[in-house]
Every structure is written in C-alpha cells, then in structure tokens.
Amino acid sequence: AQTVTQSQPEMSVQEAETVTLSCTYDTSESDYYLFWYKQPPSRQMILVIRQEAYKQQNATENRFSVNFQKAAKSFSLKISDSQLGDAAMYFCAYRRRGGSEKLVFGKGTKLTVNP
Amino acid sequence: DTAVSQTPKYLVTQMGNDKSIKCEQNLGHDTMYWYKQDSKKFLKIMFSYNNKELIINETVPNRFSPKSPDKAHLNLHINSLELGDSAVYFCASSQGGVPYEQYFGPGTRLTVT
Prior knowledge:
The structure holds two protein chains of two kinds.
Chain A: E1 3-5, E2 10-14, E3 19-21, E4 24-26, E5 32-39, E6 46-52, E7 60-61, E8 64-69, E9 74-79, E10 88-96, E11 104-105, E12 109-114
Parallel strand pairs in A: 2-12
Antiparallel strand pairs in A: 1-4, 3-9, 5-6, 5-10, 7-8, 8-9, 10-11, 10-12
Chain B: E1 4-7, E2 10-13, E3 19-25, E4 31-37, E5 43-50, E6 53-57, E7 64-70, E8 73-78, E9 87-94, E10 103-104, E11 108-112
Parallel strand pairs in B: 2-11
Antiparallel strand pairs in B: 1-3, 3-8, 4-5, 4-9, 5-6, 7-8, 9-10, 9-11
C-alpha cells in the first residue's frame, strides 16, 4: 500500500522569507501523481501544485515550487516570499495513475507565518 | 459558481440518530469521493463512485452507506451515529484523465453528542 509521510507537524516562517515543507512517499508504482493541498482555517482544500512522476522538471506555480526526487521518493514544497495568507495546513498527497484512483494523504504540516 | 457543494456545512446530532450529507458537483466530472478528516486533521478516503458505480469502499463501518443517484450527486447516509463519527466529511470530484486532480467541497463538520 502507498504511504505518504510528512515529518514536520509544524513549521514557522517569517513573512517574506522562504520555507520548505518535506514529504516522502512509498510506492512500487512507476507512474503516479503528487500534489500539495493547502487547508486554511476555512477548511476548504485548495490545490497548490501537482507533479507528474514521469516529468523530470519540477513543477512551479508562482511562489510555490517543488523539489521532486523520484529515486529518493521525496517531494518537498518550497514557498518563497511567504505571505500571511500562506498560513495553513499543508497536505502532501499521492495518487496512482488512473481515472478513479484515491488520494493518499500525509498527516499534514501546520505552517505559521510570522509578521 | 460553486464547483462542489455540500449540505449541510455543520451538523450536530445525538448518538443513535441517522443523518445524511449531500454532495453535488457541476463540473461534469465522472468520479466522486467521500473523505473523512479526523480530529487530528488526517484525511482518508471512504468511498468513490465512477459514473454511479461504487469503485472504492475502504474499511468503513456498514453504518455508512453512500448513494449516487446520478454522476453529479453523491450522498452519504450514516445510521446509528456514534461519538467516533464526529469529523469533517469532504466530498470531492475528478474527471478521468490527466491531470487527475480532485476538487473538494467545503466540508461538513459532523458533531455527535
């Protein structure tokens, strides 16, 4: 079974600084997708960024980028120029390739942004 | 327009009652899901339906019964509610094919007293 591990229950960062959230996963599949979701206090789950395992290039979305290391099964999220609105729970998630596959989530990292 | 909607957003009920949570998506997706987020924020799949057919049924008590009247709706009925059922329940949907991302509803916070 696939598992996702987020080893940092909590992280904090100063506004305008950069922070990296860690995620590792375990799978025997070669084709899959990885995601970072953000859950602010409103509890809405918001997709931040996704990575296709077959792509070597790391995904980037504005201030958010990932460091995808397939051999190491590592998928970290870097947030640059942190903003107060980035404060939230961040969940790393794995999904096998396939139309109806489930998301397997890590336990989340609570990010605090200090002004 | 709301892509994935759930009703109600909050539900407070007593042990032993039966309750339902409704979910609707207007994205034209063919797959819908129910996830449970426990008090420690851990999210886990419960069920998924593809074109009204049950695809995933994780280890969930049979007091939980999903129903999909059409591919835009997926409801969750819970019988004989227990204290441990207190959680946030999220509905999500996706469309077969890349990029496989799932769109989540706002969640329903269920409190059993």
